[in-house]
Every structure is written in C-alpha cells, then in structure tokens.
Amino acid sequence: MHRILAISGSLRTESYNTRLLHALGPLAPAGMSIDVFDGLGDVPLFNEDFDTDPAPPPVARLREAVSATDGLVIATPEYNHSLPGVLKNAIDWLSRPHGRGALSGKAVAVMVATLGRTTGYRCFSDTVRLVGSLGNVVVPAPEVVIASAPSALETSPDGTVRLVDKTAAGLIRVQLEVLADVLGAQAHHSLRQAVESNRAIIERARFFPYVARALADGATPETVTERLLSAGQTRETVAGWIAEARAADVA
Fold first, then answer.
1. Would you list the DSSP string of 168-180?
2. Of 10, 85, 148, 232, which has the fewest CB atoms closer than 10 Å, so is most exposed?
C-alpha cells in the first residue's frame, strides 16, 4: 500500500484545491491511499530562531506527517503568478534541518486548480522546480492544471466531492498511476541514496567558500561555526573546513 499525503496550498474553507484533493480517492490506483493534511494554517512563519529541537508543535506535526508517507500530492492555486506564501512557508519548514528535511527523497505529484483559463502553469512550474530542488522525484507529466475549477468540481449534499471534468479526471488518473510507478520502482529512494552518498562533497562545495571568505574578512572561528551549525553542519565538519581554509591561506 502506497501512503500518500495530500497538501493544499490554500487555507480558504471552500478552496477548490482542497476540494480537489478530497476528490482524488476514486481516481487513485489500487493500493494507494490518500490522506489530506489539515493543519497547514497552524504552521507559523518560518523563523530560524524558532527552528529548534523540539520544533514548534504545528511544525512537528507537519514534518511527522510528511516523514510517515511514501509520497505527496500537492494541489495549489496560483497567487501573483507563483505559489502561495502558505505553501512556500510549509516547504521552508520541511526543508530543515538542512540536508535532513522531511521533504526529501519523496515521490511527488503537483496539480493546480484555478478559476481562470490563462493562469496556473507558472505556479505549477515554480512548485515542481522548488520541490524537485530538495531531492524529490516529481512526476513530470501529465501536467495537471484545471481551469474553471468551479464547474469542474461537484459537491454532493453529504459533502462528497467529485471531479466531473472528464478530461481532468483522466489526466489525474494517469498522473497518480505514474506516481505509483515511481514509488514501485523505488526511484525516490535511489535518488536520496545517491545524494546522501555524495553529501560530503555537496556540502563542502556549498559552504567551504563561505568559510574561507569569512575568515579572510576577519570573522572568528566561533562565529563561522555557530553560523554553519544553524545550517545543519556538525562541529567536526566545520572545524575541518576552518583548518583547511587556514592551511590554504598560510600556503
């Protein structure tokens, strides 16, 4: 059974994207369960001062929910030609601690429900790019952007939501099948393992130039160490970079 967590990029009570997520059950392939996360509105604005251990309870709940699933489905509106701040904020929290965030090594499908016929694809593209940059396998096709969402979704008196747009329903069926195939092939785990096996090289390329520049500009080793600890590095790793930078400066 593939456990999928569905996250809406809208907090509005009657959000079309949230309703879309609730309509996915009948469209999912056999062996896939989809649960809609309902606590995004409780997650505070990301502030590194609050990124503590333990994390704030709403953040811990979000991270635990993502960590416990095999994959994600993200449905989001387009705000000002990009993804909404509430979704970006959630992704920022999920990306931490650096290199060990909950949103990494997952299989992800992205979809957009929108009112108009000329919006949605910029948000779709930005969300795919952002989630993919964190080390996830994002379903590349089909691209699901549902225009005129009010007429595409139908809610029964008992609250059941149904996607009545047959074209959109067909595309989502395929998208979820591809998501299931990615999970079945363990492609998301392979990607994570490949990244982790090269983590030391990746982290050095990212942070060593900062170490060398900061020391050359007069920063103390303590200042450099504390800054990089907040970025998820260990004292031992930073100490090695500092020694390397000092040796290079002497040479």
1. HHHHHHHHHHHHH
2. 85
